[in-house]
Amino acid sequence: MTTSTSALDALESLQTTLEPLAELHGQHNQLESWVNDSCQALEKLHGELAEWQNELARKQTELDLREDALEKCQIQEEELGGQVEQWKADLEAAQLEAQQLGEENADQIEQLVQLERRCIELEAELKVAQQRSEEMTATLEAERARAVEEQTQWKEEFKGMRDLLDKQCSLLATQLKPGEKPASVASSAAGSATSSAASSTASSTEKSAGLTARRLELRQRAQTRLAAKRREQEELDSEGPAES
Prior knowledge:
about 0% strand, about 95% helix, mainly alpha
């Protein structure tokens, strides 16, 4: 009878000893699941970064195209300026010749009128070209500044998210590292680690939510500016044929 009682006591003691181990095993499984979720979130963030980089590359291409268009406008402006100077010189020569020949020379008077009219038209075209060149220059500089600002903000946000994930992974690696303490001490340490992990998880969740909201805001702003640029380009395209 005494032997049976001792065996039962030993069995109960063994069960009592194994209960913290089972609890630690469950917590270990939960931590592994959380690590997997964090890795998946990191992969998703890498995908979003790739999309942002593609968007920045596309914007850079648009800026390059605008620069090419600006260079063409500047070349046209220089050509028109040369033509205006030439027409002005021709006009002065024609005026001098008209003064010498007098009012009787109807042909040269008509030529003078045509030269004056053409000079006015070229000056108007030059003014329009200069105005368009200035507008395109201002637009290009503004777009370049916005693109640089957005790229800087995205890099800073991604660095912040990456640092946060690195800290969380380091914390998990520290918690998952096997120890050599007794079961009772390990149980107490596990409880403290679980509480710390929970508070860290809540803090990281709040930060992730804030970063997600910031990404959505930046994406909406980029889409709004892109739509505005398209409207401006359409207006410029529609004004071009009307002026010509």
